[in-house]
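batch_manifest entry 22 of 60
target: Transcriptional repressor PaaX
source organism: Achromobacter pestifer
requested by: lab member K.T.
priority: normal
notes from requester: please return tokens only, no post-processing; we will run our own comparison against the previous entry in this batch. if the run fails, retry once and flag.
--- input ---
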Amino acid sequence: MANPQSPLDRFLSRLLKSDPPRAKSLCVSLLGDALAPHGGAIWLGDLIALLAPLGINERLLRTSVFRLVAQNWLQSERHGRRSLYLISEQGLRHTAHASQRIYEGAARDWNGEWTLVALPRTGNGLAERAELRRELVWEGFGMIAPGLFAHPHTEARAAHDILEKLGIPDRALVLSARDLAGAGGLPIASLASQCWNLDDVAEQYRQFSRNFGPVEKLLEEPPSPSEAFVVRVMLLHNWRRIVLHDPHLPSQMLPDNWPGHAARELCGRIYWKVFDASEAHLDALAGQDNERYVPVAGEIASRFGGRPAGTASESALPQSAGGMVTPSVST
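--- output ---
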């Protein structure tokens, strides 16, 4: 980091020591948040240099990158003795899918429709059932009865994609339903605490606010580009770990004073406070000698509800001739 004696630097070092990030997961966070908007290509040496201040050594990063290639998150190109890594089409689909949860959160309005996945008792073995349950829970579905999963926001397309991924597209029912509890039945929403582990998610949001609340005060002193980049990567990495496990239930189904709302607002404020300086650091490292590195994609301007007034000049993000933000790679 540029200024190892700064209060911000000391705070970040303590935070990293208390919760060291895993190399592969941290790499995925960086790819989706910072690199995909610039075209998604980076030299291995530059990736090593970007993540070294976060405690990721070269050996760990190389191993993680090789695994991401094997899992088709990344593709590699050899240029003499150098390796250029690019986010694959599958990797872009994954980051695009995650972006809604990370930067937007659950929709404020809900029409009362549920997506249901029902697994028949015959035609599916224990292994298929267990794997499907893991995938559906990861997507935010709750099990309301044996073999029956529900989610109030997730579109049916997401459920079909999971079934396709597992190779069982014709072994489960995907239904759209409306709760008819008004006729005297039990409302699905009343089962929220049983079907979703909201207490655990709420505590994760509270811990996030405890961890990063002090950062906002420390940022009153403008950070160096390298410090801003570390803040951004740590912030998004920790945020991503929580929101991708949050089922994103409608506000009507959440407890009063849901801590996720305050945590999201805090995350957005810090993100935009460090964005421009972090981009300068990224440009200086990843943008050099890289023809695949492009100006930041315009849709990034809508993240966390958009850049707050007064955080930076309007020229910080790309504009078209008509003054509108120019779109590029979706993240």
